[in-house]
């Protein structure tokens, strides 16, 4: 029975990969910025998932959110271990669309939580852009300041005020 | 460093939870925020809330096709039993109860037995008898997953609802007779119950599972005495 179960688990694992690898590869590829590195990180991510390092609790976060968070964190870890900073100007997440490609995930997001996206739109463009860039490119304050060529304190000030306004908006909606 | 003139806020902005959740901090600032997570439950909850907010942005993240053959390399590095290539588990059928992704993730993460050294191969059971019954108890937002293997009478529950001190979550089966029968007590970290023959007979597709909150040790009466916090019907996979 153990063997049968193990075999079923592996089939389920492949199905999980089939359902999620495009999203997770998109996440790690953007942050790693290199196909080979992204592949290695993605390999690592699925091993983590298989070993259950970090428990998924049904209900706390949606499955894809939990998996994508693992992928983003691993990719950021990898990049920081390389001590690689992005060369040249960053693309400031402008290639990331403002709306979800499918209405279903939109509905899920709206039903489960108050809309962060709605609140981001209320920010000054510079603040919203900085927060999106921090998320999609996995940047710290120091990364962002360097990429933008502004003093660290200035970068912190922009983003902190953006976060404070975001908090107001989210609390208001809550 | 000279701040811009308009940065003199009347009060300091406490956005440390958001900063940590977004990953903006490094070095000593990050260490300080992590210490707060450990020391202040309210702060930890705030960080978690922000994480969930920011996670909404994952919906927008463009997909990219993973390199071909990567799943095979991952599979190889796992070792152990090989998946049966010929048969794909019909997990998407579970979509009536929850998303296909949630279902496979449950099988891989929540319900997979703790890895054990494998005994010598045993003859596989017949394909047709390998049915699994699953249920998602509670609402769509926070279901508790249950899976029951009729072959060996094992019921696995991925988690348990939070209960007050000196209370315990108890699992019940309610069949055609409409009477709740106790199946066992649940622990928050997940529970595996080996059911008695009488209980096994009750578990068929359509049987309702319910979780109630009971005094420590379980209901003293044999019927639920506390609030029923989650229910769900078993369905065959």
UniProtKB/TrEMBL annotation, chain B:
Residues 98-228 form the Anti-sigma K factor RskA C-terminal domain. The chain crosses the membrane at residues 91-111. InterPro entries: Anti-sigma-K/W_factor, RskA_C. It holds the Pfam family RskA_C. It comes from the Bacteria. Keywords: Membrane, Transmembrane, Transmembrane helix. PANTHER family: ANTI-SIGMA-K FACTOR RSKA. This is Anti-sigma factor. It comes from Sphingomonas longa. The lineage of its organism: Bacteria, Pseudomonadati, Pseudomonadota, Alphaproteobacteria, Sphingomonadales.
